[in-house]
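DATA SHEET
Item: assembly model
Revision: 1
Owner: S.N.
Input lines:
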Amino acid sequence: MPVLTVVQAINKALSEEMSKDESIVLLGEDIGVNGGVFRATEGLYQTFGSNRVIDTPLTESGIIGIAMGMSLYGLKPVAEIQFLDFIYPAFDLIVNELAKFRYRTGGHYTAHMVIRAPCGGGIKGGMYHSQSSETYFIHTAGLKVVMPSSSYDAKGLLIAAIRDDDPVIFLEPKRLYRSIKGEVPEGDYAVQLGRASVLTEGEDVSLFTYGAMVHVALEAAKKAGEKGISVEVVDLRTLSPLDFDAMVTSVKKTGRVVIVHEAPRTLGLGAEISAIISEKAFLHLEAPIARVTGYDTPYHYSLEEVYLPNVEKVLKTVEKTASF
Amino acid sequence: MSSGVLQVVNQEGKFDPKLDPDLPQSELHKLYRTMIYTRVFDNRMIALQRQGRMSFYAPCVGEEAAHVGSAYALKPEDWLFPQYREQGAMILRGIPLEQLVSSLFGNRNDVCKGRNFANAWGDRSLNIVNSSAPVGTQIPLAVGAAMAAKYKGDKIVTLAYFGDGSTSSGYFHVGLTFASVFKAPTIFFCKNNQYAVSVPTQRQLGSENIAVKAAGYGMEGVQVDGNDILAVYRVTKDAVERARNGEGPTLIEAITYRIGPHSTSDDPSRYRSQEEVESWKRKDPIKRLRLYLENRGLWGEKEEADLWKEAEDMVSEAVRKAEAAPLPTVESMFEDVYKEMSTALKEQLQDALTFHEWG
C-alpha cells in the first residue's frame, strides 16, 4: 500500500473524486497553475484544466460566494481558503447563507460544497497563520466540521465530505501536512462523518482530542503507559456533529477524562465535550474533567511552544487526573 | 430624466415609437395586470400589519415597473436572485399569492415551513432563490450560479436584484469582479430607489451615478427610467441577450423611488419631505403604463375597474386561506438543518416536544 503524507492524501482524494464526478470543481487562490501554497492541488490544474481548477481573484468572500452560487446550480465545489485565519471575510456568507440554505428554503435549495482550510499552529506562523477557529463553525447550525489527523483519514474523510449533501468545513492541520506519513489505500474508500476513532484502548483515562493534537496525545499516552497509566486516546475526527456514543462509551470504561485541543480554552470544543459528559455520564466520573488547550490569548509568534499543548503538559494532566 | 437615462414612455404616456418594444396587447396587459396585483397586494399587507395580523412587511409601492419589467425580460429557465422588494417579479414568475402570504404569516402551508422573516420569497420550481436579510449576499451567489451554468453548457442567465445601498457592500465588488473576470452571464439589476432605509443615495457613492461603476469592471453599465416599464424591459432584454450570447455581464441602474416606508417599522417623515414624495407619486409607474395603453387605445375605464376588483378579490382569497392555516409543527423546526437529523438535534426535538406539551 502506498505511503503518503497528509497533503498527498488530500491531493489523492481530490484527484480521484474529480475523475469520477464532473460536477466537482475547485476554487481558491493559487490553487491552479501554482498547485496551492501547500501543494494540496498540485497537478490537478494540468489534469482537469482551468475550468475545474479555478484560480480566483484574491477575495475569500468571493471564493465562498461564487462556490456557493455554483453549488445552488448543482455543482459540488471544493473551495480552498489559503489559511483558516483568512476565512473571516467569508464568515457572513458561511454563517448566514451556506449554513442556512437548506433550512431557510424548506429543503428546496441545498449547498453541496466543501470548504478546505489549513488550520492550527506549530509552524512558526504567528497569529495570522496559526489560528484554530473551529468553534465558530461548530457553533453554527447547518455546518459539518471535520479535522483529520492522519493520511488515511485525510483521504477518507475528504472523500466523505465531498460526497456529503451538507456543507462541510474541512480543516487540515498544516503542521501535519508533511510531518505525518501513513498507508493510504488506492481508490475508493470513505471514512464516515460523525464517527470518532479509538486509537489506543485504555482503562484509566480517556483522552479526547483531534487534529494535530492527536499525535501529542498519543505520545503522552505512551509515556503514561510506561508509568502504569492506561490511556484511551479517542480521535474525534468529526467535530460537528459529535460522536456522543464514542465519548460516553469511553468514559463509562475509564471514569476519567482529559480533553486536548490547541484552540483557545473558553468555549473551545473541550467545553462542550465536558458538558456532554456531565450530562450523559456524570455518575461514571471519578475525577474532574481536565482540559489542556491553547490559551485565551491571540496566538503567539515567538512563544508558540508555550501557547501550544505539548506532551509534557498532557502527561502531567493525565497523571493528575489518574491520581485524583 | 437626464440624458443617458433611457426612457420610452414619458410621464404623460407619450412614447417614442422608435424605442417602443411594441409588445403584443396580451403581453402589455399581463405586465399591467401584474403591477396592479402587486399594488393591491402591497396595500393589503400593510393594512394587515397595521391591524396587528402580521408582524412586519416591506412594500414596493412605486418600484413595480423596475422589477416587473426586468423579470419579464427573462426566460423561465433563467435564475432570479431577489433582494426582498420585488413582489411583482414573484407574482409575474408565478409564485401563487397564497404562497406569498403564507410566507409572511410563517404558517404551515409556507414552502419554507414558516422559517423566514418578511419578504424572503423563493421557489425552486420557478428558479427563484430565496433571499436573506444581509445586504448584497445574493450578488456573488448569482454570479456563481451563472458560472456553473456556463460550465455545464446551459444557455441561461442569472439576474440579481439589489438596491443603491447594496452597492456599498463588499459583495457588489466581489460579484462584479468575478463576473467580469469570468464573463459570467449575470445581470446586476440595481433598483436605485433613492434611499437605503433613511440614507440617501448620495451617501452611498462619490461617483456620478451607479451605472458608471461598471466601467471599472470592464462591463457595460446603463441607466434607465425605472418607472417606465417598457424602458426597463428594453435595457434588460438587451443585457440578457448579451449575456446569453457569451458577451458577459451588465450593470443596470434603474432610477426609481420608494414611495412607501422602508418597512412597516419605518417612519420616512424623519428623513424626507412630503413634497419630494408627492413629486415622485406623479411619476407613478402604474399610471405611466395605463396612459401608454390608453394612448394606444388598448385600455379603458371598464377594464381598469374590473382589474382592480379582480385583484382585490384574489388577494382577499389568498389572505383568507393563509390566515386560516396553522403554525408549522414543532418537529419541522428541527428538520432541514442537515439532510439527516443529528443525535443532538433529535435530543433537542424531544426536549422541545416535552415543553410544548406542557405549554
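QC remark: Chain B has a mean pLDDT of 96.
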